[in-house]
Design goal:
Number of strands: 10
Helix content: 40-55%
Mean pLDDT: 97
Shape: globular
Number of domains: 2
CATH superfamily of the largest domain: NAD(P)-binding Rossmann-like Domain
Order of helices and strands: EHEHHEEHEHEEHEHHHHHEE
Bound molecules: 3-hydroxybutanoyl-coenzyme A
Number of helices: 11
CATH architecture of the largest domain: 3-Layer(aba) Sandwich
Distance between the termini: 47 Å
Strand content: 15-25%
Length: 289
């Protein structure tokens, strides 16, 4: 099956990027946001990102306009019922996601593939909730979706070969390099990345080095585009804390998943990173102050 029509649920940090790359690659996209203000904000972000790509000569003005024209915003779940693929990119709450996939399972045409952009929950659980476990896959994109080349395509035990192949082909059509991953905590990237970010925080807690020095170490010593503290601020300290807390409660004997007190403290103080103007560093818009 070739995916032509895509529903994206959630037009936030990840959802707007997924909708954009799907539209730029020629798919008809319907983006769902229950809140009309959030929908407007998300569509505004897509416009801004397309304009940036035009200014950098990565996209022509005509292609940007045509891509934006392929995106339709809605507040009504019913509008997704005929989509070939529905990608969920809402809040990381398994009950809310399961509830959503339960509704989609009753609403969508039988061939619709269901995908979650979750970074931490079981794809199999959502497949069960949908009532169509064979149609369920993980499609985990990376932030910023418009620039990052990877998509993890996650296969649960009951995912059919057809669903998996169609999801992988969709990722490729969006200009991404797909890697296949099992339905295990963190898949490939976050399983390595999140413990690394946590250890960087522990290093600062112990007084071994400052955030600026750790970042300089990893950018200049390892060639990473961002050091762990800039990346924590970029991804959101609350997101990383949420992932770690989930894993820590499921695997209490795994030291790698221990939650650093400093990370929790920053989140309690509302210092969530770039989006609140301060995390480990101060931010002015998208740039480090
Ligand atoms: N759309 C269009 N343009 C964008 C953009 C977007 N969404 N986001 C940034 N840009 C633009 C910037 O405004 C900047 O423009 P400027 O040069 O005019 O200021 C330009 O792209 C950046 O171009 P650069 O040549 O400077 O790019 P960099 O080499 O700095 O790359 C980066 C930027 C790709 C973000 C790079 O720093 C990077 O790879 N960082 C690491 C990001 C990363 O690790 N992401 C994964 C996070 S983990 C995750 O997402 C998983 C989750 O589950 C937690």
């Amino acid at each position: 099956m070739t995916v032509k029509t895509v529903g994206v649920i959630g037009c936030g940090l990840m959802g707007h990027g997924i909708a954009q790359v799907a539209a730029v690659s020629g798919h008809e996209v319907t983006v769902l946001e229950a809140d009309s203000g959030a929908l407007e904000k998300g569509l505004g972000r897509i416009k801004k990102s397309l304009a940036k790509l035009v200014s950098k000569e990565k996209l022509s003005q005509g292609d940007a306009d045509a891509s934006f024209g392929r995106i339709k915003g809605t507040g009504n779940l019913e509008d997704l019922k005929d989509c070939d693929l529905v990608v969920e990119a809402i809040v990381e709450n398994l009950d809310v996601k399961n509830d959503l996939f339960g509704k989609l399972g009753k609403l969508c045409k039988p061939s619709t593939i269901f995908a979650s952009n979750t970074s931490s929950f079981s794809i199999g659980a959502m497949g069960t909730a949908s009532g169509r476990p064979g149609n369920m896959v993980g499609l985990h994109f990376f932030n910023p979706v418009q620039l990052m080349k990877l998509v993890e395509v996650v296969r649960a035990d009951e995912t059919t070969d057809e669903s998996f192949a169609a999801a992988k082909a969709f990722g490729e059509a969006c200009g991404k390099v797909p890697v296949s991953a099992k339905d295990s905590p963190g898949f490939v990237v976050n399983r390595l990345l999140v413990p690394y970010l946590a250890e960087a925080v522990r290093m600062v807690e112990r007084g071994d080095a400052t955030p600026a020095d750790v970042d300089a170490g990893m950018t200049l010593g390892c060639g990473h585009p961002m050091g762990p503290f800039t990346l924590l601020d970029y991804v959101g300290l609350d997101t990383t804390l949420f992932i770690l807390e989930g894993w820590a409660s499921e695997h209490p004997n795994e030291n790698l998943f221990e939650v650093p007190a400093l990370l929790r403290q920053k989140v309690d103080e509302g210092k969530l990173g770039r989006k609140t103007g301060e995390g480990f560093f101060k931010w002015e818009g998208d740039k480090r102050a």
